[in-house]
Amino acid sequence: MANDDSGNGHDPWKRGAGEPNDLDQIVQEWQRRFGRILGGGGGAGSGGSGGSGFALIVMLLIAWGLTGFYRVDEAERGVVQRFGAYTITSDPGLRWHLPFPIETVDIVNIQEVNDYPFSTEMLTADEQYVYIDVVVQYRRTDPVQYSFEVMGPDVTLNDLTESALRGVVGTSTLAELIGERREQIPERTISELQETLEAYHAGLTVTSINLRVVDYPKAVQEAVDDTQKARNDRDRYRLEAQTYANDIIPRARGAAQRVLQDAEGYRDRLIADAEGEAARFEALLTEYRKAPKVTRDRLYIQAIEDVYSRSNKVILDSEGSGNLLYLPVDELMKRSNAGLSSDATSRSTEAMASPNSANDDGTATTNRERRTRE
After folding, report:
1. What is the pLDDT of residues 178-214, one digit of tens each?
2. Residue 12: phi, psi to the nearest 5?
3. 3-state secondary structure the chain
Protein backbone atom coordinates (compact mmCIF):
# COMPACT_ATOMS: atom_id res chain seq x y z
CA MET A 1 0.00 0.00 0.00
CA ALA A 2 1.48 3.37 -0.99
CA ASN A 3 2.13 6.10 1.55
CA ASP A 4 0.37 8.74 -0.56
CA ASP A 5 -3.00 7.59 -1.87
CA SER A 6 -4.02 10.34 -4.23
CA GLY A 7 -7.16 8.44 -5.23
CA ASN A 8 -9.10 9.00 -1.94
CA GLY A 9 -7.59 12.40 -1.11
CA HIS A 10 -6.46 11.43 2.44
CA ASP A 11 -3.07 12.27 3.92
CA PRO A 12 -1.57 9.20 5.72
CA TRP A 13 0.06 11.50 8.31
CA LYS A 14 -3.39 12.77 9.47
CA ARG A 15 -5.84 11.00 11.77
CA GLY A 16 -9.48 10.31 11.11
CA ALA A 17 -10.68 13.87 11.66
CA GLY A 18 -7.94 15.15 9.45
CA GLU A 19 -6.22 17.05 12.30
CA PRO A 20 -2.40 17.28 12.04
CA ASN A 21 -0.45 15.00 14.49
CA ASP A 22 2.61 16.89 15.58
CA LEU A 23 5.68 14.83 16.76
CA ASP A 24 6.11 17.03 19.86
CA GLN A 25 2.55 16.33 20.88
CA ILE A 26 3.08 12.59 20.54
CA VAL A 27 6.17 12.72 22.76
CA GLN A 28 4.35 14.81 25.39
CA GLU A 29 1.44 12.36 25.38
CA TRP A 30 3.73 9.42 26.09
CA GLN A 31 5.47 11.39 28.85
CA ARG A 32 2.11 12.02 30.54
CA ARG A 33 1.26 8.32 30.34
CA PHE A 34 4.54 7.26 31.96
CA GLY A 35 4.08 9.91 34.62
CA ARG A 36 0.67 8.55 35.53
CA ILE A 37 2.00 4.98 35.69
CA LEU A 38 4.87 5.94 37.98
CA GLY A 39 2.59 8.01 40.20
CA GLY A 40 3.78 11.36 38.95
CA GLY A 41 0.39 12.41 37.62
CA GLY A 42 -2.35 14.34 39.59
CA GLY A 43 -6.10 14.33 39.69
CA ALA A 44 -8.69 11.94 40.95
CA GLY A 45 -7.00 8.79 39.64
CA SER A 46 -3.63 9.43 41.29
CA GLY A 47 -4.07 6.62 43.90
CA GLY A 48 -4.79 3.94 41.34
CA SER A 49 -1.97 5.10 39.18
CA GLY A 50 0.47 4.96 42.13
CA GLY A 51 -0.49 1.34 42.89
CA SER A 52 0.03 0.34 39.31
CA GLY A 53 3.49 2.01 39.30
CA PHE A 54 4.56 0.15 42.46
CA ALA A 55 3.46 -3.18 41.02
CA LEU A 56 5.41 -2.47 37.85
CA ILE A 57 8.52 -1.66 39.88
CA VAL A 58 8.18 -4.91 41.82
CA MET A 59 7.80 -6.85 38.63
CA LEU A 60 10.86 -5.20 37.16
CA LEU A 61 12.86 -6.01 40.29
CA ILE A 62 11.76 -9.64 40.16
CA ALA A 63 12.67 -9.86 36.50
CA TRP A 64 16.04 -8.24 37.26
CA GLY A 65 16.66 -10.72 40.05
CA LEU A 66 15.82 -13.66 37.84
CA THR A 67 18.61 -12.65 35.50
CA GLY A 68 21.09 -13.70 38.23
CA PHE A 69 20.32 -17.40 37.85
CA TYR A 70 22.83 -19.42 35.85
CA ARG A 71 23.69 -23.06 35.35
CA VAL A 72 27.15 -24.66 35.65
CA ASP A 73 27.71 -28.02 33.95
CA GLU A 74 29.76 -30.84 35.41
CA ALA A 75 32.86 -29.99 33.35
CA GLU A 76 32.60 -26.27 34.08
CA ARG A 77 33.31 -23.83 36.88
CA GLY A 78 31.82 -20.38 37.39
CA VAL A 79 34.04 -17.44 38.34
CA VAL A 80 31.83 -14.85 40.09
CA GLN A 81 32.98 -11.22 39.99
CA ARG A 82 31.56 -8.34 41.97
CA PHE A 83 32.23 -5.04 40.26
CA GLY A 84 35.08 -6.79 38.41
CA ALA A 85 36.76 -8.27 41.52
CA TYR A 86 36.90 -12.02 42.14
CA THR A 87 34.35 -13.23 44.69
CA ILE A 88 33.89 -16.99 44.51
CA THR A 89 34.18 -20.02 42.28
CA SER A 90 30.86 -21.77 41.83
CA ASP A 91 30.55 -25.54 41.48
CA PRO A 92 28.33 -27.43 39.01
CA GLY A 93 24.57 -26.99 39.40
CA LEU A 94 21.97 -24.21 39.30
CA ARG A 95 23.48 -21.08 40.87
CA TRP A 96 22.51 -17.47 41.48
CA HIS A 97 24.49 -14.27 41.74
CA LEU A 98 23.58 -10.62 42.17
CA PRO A 99 22.35 -9.47 38.79
CA PHE A 100 24.26 -7.30 36.39
CA PRO A 101 25.88 -4.82 36.85
CA ILE A 102 26.64 -5.72 40.44
CA GLU A 103 28.00 -9.20 39.78
CA THR A 104 28.96 -11.10 36.67
CA VAL A 105 30.03 -14.72 36.13
CA ASP A 106 32.46 -16.30 33.65
CA ILE A 107 31.82 -19.96 32.83
CA VAL A 108 35.12 -21.81 32.25
CA ASN A 109 35.29 -25.40 30.99
CA ILE A 110 38.14 -27.08 32.86
CA GLN A 111 37.92 -30.51 31.18
CA GLU A 112 37.67 -29.60 27.52
CA VAL A 113 40.83 -30.19 25.52
CA ASN A 114 41.44 -27.30 23.14
CA ASP A 115 43.59 -27.40 20.00
CA TYR A 116 45.86 -24.52 19.18
CA PRO A 117 47.66 -24.75 15.79
CA PHE A 118 51.01 -23.03 15.53
CA SER A 119 53.55 -22.81 12.70
CA THR A 120 56.73 -20.82 12.27
CA GLU A 121 60.13 -20.74 10.58
CA MET A 122 63.38 -20.63 12.54
CA LEU A 123 67.09 -21.44 12.49
CA THR A 124 68.64 -24.61 13.88
CA ALA A 125 71.94 -24.96 15.73
CA ASP A 126 73.79 -25.61 12.45
CA GLU A 127 72.20 -22.49 10.87
CA GLN A 128 69.68 -24.37 8.74
CA TYR A 129 66.32 -22.78 7.93
CA VAL A 130 63.46 -25.06 9.00
CA TYR A 131 59.66 -24.88 8.91
CA ILE A 132 57.75 -26.34 11.90
CA ASP A 133 54.01 -26.92 12.19
CA VAL A 134 52.58 -28.17 15.50
CA VAL A 135 49.23 -28.45 17.27
CA VAL A 136 49.22 -27.63 20.98
CA GLN A 137 46.51 -29.32 23.05
CA TYR A 138 45.73 -27.71 26.41
CA ARG A 139 43.12 -27.45 29.18
CA ARG A 140 42.02 -24.54 31.37
CA THR A 141 42.73 -26.25 34.68
CA ASP A 142 42.57 -23.17 36.95
CA PRO A 143 39.59 -20.92 36.05
CA VAL A 144 40.59 -18.15 38.48
CA GLN A 145 44.12 -17.81 37.14
CA TYR A 146 42.86 -18.14 33.58
CA SER A 147 40.40 -15.26 34.15
CA PHE A 148 42.56 -12.85 36.18
CA GLU A 149 46.29 -13.54 36.11
CA VAL A 150 47.03 -13.19 32.40
CA MET A 151 45.54 -10.75 29.93
CA GLY A 152 44.79 -12.66 26.73
CA PRO A 153 45.73 -16.28 27.57
CA ASP A 154 45.57 -17.36 23.92
CA VAL A 155 48.05 -14.67 22.85
CA THR A 156 50.28 -15.62 25.77
CA LEU A 157 50.11 -19.28 24.75
CA ASN A 158 51.16 -18.32 21.20
CA ASP A 159 54.18 -16.35 22.41
CA LEU A 160 55.27 -19.00 24.90
CA THR A 161 54.90 -21.79 22.34
CA GLU A 162 57.13 -19.94 19.90
CA SER A 163 59.69 -19.26 22.64
CA ALA A 164 59.76 -22.92 23.74
CA LEU A 165 60.10 -24.16 20.16
CA ARG A 166 62.95 -21.77 19.46
CA GLY A 167 64.70 -23.02 22.57
CA VAL A 168 64.41 -26.63 21.40
CA VAL A 169 65.12 -26.09 17.69
CA GLY A 170 67.91 -23.57 18.27
CA THR A 171 69.92 -26.09 20.29
CA SER A 172 69.53 -28.99 17.82
CA THR A 173 70.86 -29.63 14.35
CA LEU A 174 68.63 -30.24 11.36
CA ALA A 175 69.75 -33.86 11.10
CA GLU A 176 68.73 -34.43 14.72
CA LEU A 177 65.35 -32.73 14.26
CA ILE A 178 64.48 -34.67 11.11
CA GLY A 179 66.07 -37.94 12.15
CA GLU A 180 66.92 -39.42 15.50
CA ARG A 181 65.59 -36.66 17.80
CA ARG A 182 62.32 -35.91 16.01
CA GLU A 183 60.28 -37.69 18.69
CA GLN A 184 61.99 -35.66 21.42
CA ILE A 185 60.80 -32.29 20.10
CA PRO A 186 57.25 -32.48 21.59
CA GLU A 187 58.51 -33.73 24.95
CA ARG A 188 61.13 -31.02 25.34
CA THR A 189 58.71 -28.34 24.10
CA ILE A 190 55.99 -29.42 26.55
CA SER A 191 58.46 -29.33 29.43
CA GLU A 192 59.69 -25.80 28.69
CA LEU A 193 56.23 -24.49 27.79
CA GLN A 194 54.54 -25.85 30.92
CA GLU A 195 57.30 -24.51 33.16
CA THR A 196 56.81 -21.01 31.72
CA LEU A 197 53.00 -21.20 31.97
CA GLU A 198 53.26 -22.11 35.64
CA ALA A 199 55.62 -19.22 36.24
CA TYR A 200 53.09 -16.87 34.60
CA HIS A 201 50.13 -18.42 36.57
CA ALA A 202 48.19 -18.67 33.31
CA GLY A 203 45.91 -21.45 34.54
CA LEU A 204 46.64 -23.58 31.45
CA THR A 205 47.97 -27.14 31.32
CA VAL A 206 49.50 -28.46 28.09
CA THR A 207 48.44 -32.07 27.57
CA SER A 208 50.28 -32.85 24.32
CA ILE A 209 51.95 -31.38 21.26
CA ASN A 210 51.46 -33.03 17.87
CA LEU A 211 54.37 -32.44 15.51
CA ARG A 212 52.93 -32.36 12.02
CA VAL A 213 55.69 -30.93 9.81
CA VAL A 214 59.43 -30.46 10.26
CA ASP A 215 60.98 -29.60 6.93
CA TYR A 216 62.65 -26.93 4.87
CA PRO A 217 60.52 -23.95 3.80
CA LYS A 218 59.19 -24.24 0.26
CA ALA A 219 61.00 -21.06 -0.77
CA VAL A 220 64.41 -22.61 -0.15
CA GLN A 221 63.56 -26.26 -0.84
CA GLU A 222 65.35 -26.34 -4.20
CA ALA A 223 68.52 -24.79 -2.80
CA VAL A 224 68.44 -27.16 0.16
CA ASP A 225 68.03 -30.15 -2.16
CA ASP A 226 71.10 -29.03 -4.12
CA THR A 227 73.05 -28.62 -0.89
CA GLN A 228 72.01 -32.05 0.32
CA LYS A 229 72.94 -33.57 -3.03
CA ALA A 230 76.38 -31.94 -2.83
CA ARG A 231 76.85 -33.31 0.68
CA ASN A 232 75.87 -36.78 -0.46
CA ASP A 233 78.34 -36.56 -3.35
CA ARG A 234 81.03 -35.39 -0.95
CA ASP A 235 80.39 -38.32 1.38
CA ARG A 236 80.35 -40.73 -1.56
CA TYR A 237 83.64 -39.41 -2.92
CA ARG A 238 85.20 -39.64 0.51
CA LEU A 239 84.03 -43.21 0.84
CA GLU A 240 85.38 -44.13 -2.58
CA ALA A 241 88.71 -42.47 -1.80
CA GLN A 242 88.91 -44.27 1.52
CA THR A 243 88.09 -47.57 -0.17
CA TYR A 244 90.78 -46.97 -2.80
CA ALA A 245 93.28 -46.04 -0.09
CA ASN A 246 92.42 -49.14 1.91
CA ASP A 247 93.08 -51.21 -1.21
CA ILE A 248 96.21 -49.57 -2.62
CA ILE A 249 98.10 -48.83 0.59
CA PRO A 250 98.31 -52.45 1.81
CA ARG A 251 99.35 -53.58 -1.66
CA ALA A 252 102.03 -50.87 -1.85
CA ARG A 253 103.27 -51.81 1.60
CA GLY A 254 103.36 -55.49 0.59
CA ALA A 255 105.26 -54.65 -2.60
CA ALA A 256 107.72 -52.53 -0.63
CA GLN A 257 108.20 -55.31 1.88
CA ARG A 258 108.74 -57.79 -0.94
CA VAL A 259 111.35 -55.54 -2.55
CA LEU A 260 113.10 -55.20 0.81
CA GLN A 261 113.10 -58.96 1.26
CA ASP A 262 114.43 -59.48 -2.27
CA ALA A 263 117.17 -56.94 -1.64
CA GLU A 264 118.09 -58.62 1.61
CA GLY A 265 118.15 -62.00 -0.13
CA TYR A 266 120.29 -60.61 -2.94
CA ARG A 267 122.65 -59.07 -0.41
CA ASP A 268 122.92 -62.31 1.52
CA ARG A 269 123.50 -64.24 -1.70
CA LEU A 270 126.27 -61.92 -2.84
CA ILE A 271 127.89 -62.10 0.56
CA ALA A 272 127.67 -65.88 0.52
CA ASP A 273 129.07 -66.02 -3.03
CA ALA A 274 131.92 -63.72 -2.07
CA GLU A 275 132.67 -65.73 1.03
CA GLY A 276 132.56 -68.95 -1.04
CA GLU A 277 134.90 -67.50 -3.66
CA ALA A 278 137.24 -66.29 -0.93
CA ALA A 279 137.17 -69.70 0.76
CA ARG A 280 137.82 -71.46 -2.57
CA PHE A 281 140.68 -69.12 -3.34
CA GLU A 282 142.17 -69.74 0.09
CA ALA A 283 141.85 -73.48 -0.45
CA LEU A 284 143.40 -73.15 -3.89
CA LEU A 285 146.20 -71.06 -2.44
CA THR A 286 146.90 -73.76 0.09
CA GLU A 287 147.07 -76.38 -2.66
CA TYR A 288 149.25 -74.11 -4.78
CA ARG A 289 151.75 -73.69 -1.98
CA LYS A 290 151.95 -77.44 -1.62
CA ALA A 291 152.32 -78.22 -5.37
CA PRO A 292 152.69 -75.15 -7.56
CA LYS A 293 153.29 -76.95 -10.88
CA VAL A 294 150.43 -79.38 -10.46
CA THR A 295 148.11 -76.58 -9.44
CA ARG A 296 149.04 -74.45 -12.42
CA ASP A 297 148.45 -77.34 -14.80
CA ARG A 298 145.14 -78.08 -13.19
CA LEU A 299 144.02 -74.45 -13.45
CA TYR A 300 145.07 -74.39 -17.11
CA ILE A 301 143.19 -77.59 -17.88
CA GLN A 302 140.08 -76.30 -16.10
CA ALA A 303 140.24 -73.03 -18.04
CA ILE A 304 140.58 -74.88 -21.35
CA GLU A 305 137.76 -77.21 -20.34
CA ASP A 306 135.54 -74.28 -19.56
CA VAL A 307 136.31 -72.53 -22.83
CA TYR A 308 135.81 -75.62 -24.97
CA SER A 309 132.63 -76.54 -23.19
CA ARG A 310 131.08 -73.26 -24.36
CA SER A 311 132.40 -73.39 -27.93
CA ASN A 312 131.24 -75.23 -31.07
CA LYS A 313 133.83 -77.75 -32.15
CA VAL A 314 134.42 -79.42 -35.55
CA ILE A 315 136.95 -82.27 -35.56
CA LEU A 316 138.49 -83.26 -38.93
CA ASP A 317 140.73 -86.14 -39.73
CA SER A 318 143.13 -84.51 -42.17
CA GLU A 319 145.17 -87.65 -42.68
CA GLY A 320 142.29 -90.00 -43.45
CA SER A 321 140.66 -88.03 -46.25
CA GLY A 322 141.93 -85.55 -48.78
CA ASN A 323 138.54 -84.44 -50.08
CA LEU A 324 137.57 -80.82 -49.76
CA LEU A 325 135.10 -80.35 -46.95
CA TYR A 326 132.26 -77.86 -46.98
CA LEU A 327 131.68 -76.11 -43.63
CA PRO A 328 128.32 -74.31 -43.20
CA VAL A 329 129.77 -71.24 -41.53
CA ASP A 330 126.37 -69.48 -41.25
CA GLU A 331 124.83 -72.39 -39.36
CA LEU A 332 127.86 -72.64 -37.13
CA MET A 333 127.62 -68.92 -36.28
CA LYS A 334 123.92 -69.20 -35.44
CA ARG A 335 124.54 -72.18 -33.21
CA SER A 336 127.40 -70.33 -31.57
CA ASN A 337 125.19 -67.31 -30.87
CA ALA A 338 122.40 -69.54 -29.54
CA GLY A 339 124.90 -71.28 -27.28
CA LEU A 340 126.14 -67.96 -25.95
CA SER A 341 122.55 -66.82 -25.25
CA SER A 342 121.69 -70.04 -23.41
CA ASP A 343 124.90 -69.75 -21.45
CA ALA A 344 124.06 -66.16 -20.43
CA THR A 345 120.59 -67.29 -19.39
CA SER A 346 121.99 -70.11 -17.31
CA ARG A 347 124.39 -67.73 -15.65
CA SER A 348 121.56 -65.35 -14.80
CA THR A 349 119.55 -68.22 -13.36
CA GLU A 350 122.51 -69.30 -11.30
CA ALA A 351 123.01 -65.73 -10.07
CA MET A 352 119.37 -65.66 -8.85
CA ALA A 353 119.63 -69.07 -7.19
CA SER A 354 119.80 -69.52 -3.42
CA PRO A 355 123.08 -69.12 -1.53
CA ASN A 356 123.31 -72.90 -1.25
CA SER A 357 124.07 -73.07 -4.97
CA ALA A 358 127.43 -71.42 -4.28
CA ASN A 359 128.23 -74.21 -1.86
CA ASP A 360 127.06 -76.77 -4.42
CA ASP A 361 129.30 -75.21 -7.09
CA GLY A 362 132.19 -75.19 -4.66
CA THR A 363 131.61 -78.85 -3.90
CA ALA A 364 131.40 -79.70 -7.62
CA THR A 365 134.61 -77.76 -8.31
CA THR A 366 136.36 -79.49 -5.44
CA ASN A 367 135.24 -82.89 -6.75
CA ARG A 368 136.40 -82.01 -10.23
CA GLU A 369 139.79 -80.86 -8.87
CA ARG A 370 140.09 -84.12 -6.92
CA ARG A 371 139.41 -86.16 -10.03
CA THR A 372 141.93 -84.13 -12.00
CA ARG A 373 144.64 -84.69 -9.40
CA GLU A 374 143.88 -88.39 -9.41
Report:
1. 776 778 888 888 888 888 888 888 888 888 888 888 7
2. -65, -15
3. CCCCECCCCECCCECCCCCECCHHHHHHHHHHHHHHHCCCCCCCCHHHHHHHHHHHHHHHHHHHHHCCEEEECCCEEEEEEECCEEEEEECCEEEECCCCCCEEEEEEECCCCEEEEEEEEEECCCCCEEEEEEEEEEEECCHHHHHHCCCCHHHHHHHHHHHHHHHHHCCCCHHHHHCCCCCHHHHHHHHHHHHHHHHHCCCEEEEEEEEEEEECCHHHHHHHHHHHHHHHHHHHHHHHHHHHHHHHHHHHHHHHHHHHHHHHHHHHHHHHHHHHHHHHHHHHHHHHHHCHHHHHHHHHHHHHHHHHHCCCCCCCCCCCCCCCCCCCHHHHHHHHHHHHHHHHHHHHHHHCCCCHHHHHHHHHHHHHHHHHHC
* Residues composing the chain: 374
With 0.90 as the threshold, say if the pTM is over it: no
Tens-digit pLDDT profile for residues 342-369: 665 665 555 454 444 444 444 444 444 4
Measured from the Cβ of residue 138, the count of other Cβ atoms closer than 10 Å reads: 24
Q: Where are the domains of the chain?
A: 33-66, 69-109, 114-215, 248-315+326-373
Give exposure, 106-118, as e/b (b: 16+ Cβ within 10 Å).
Answer: eebeeeeeeebee
pLDDT tens-digit series, residues 56-83 = 787 888 888 888 888 888 888 888 888 8
Which homologous superfamily is 114-215 in? Band 7 domain (3.30.479.30)
* Radius of gyration for the chain, computed over Cα atoms and rounded to the nearest angstrom: 62
Q: What is the mean pLDDT of residues 231-249?
A: 92
- Alpha-carbon torsion (295, 299, 302, 308), positive or negative: negative
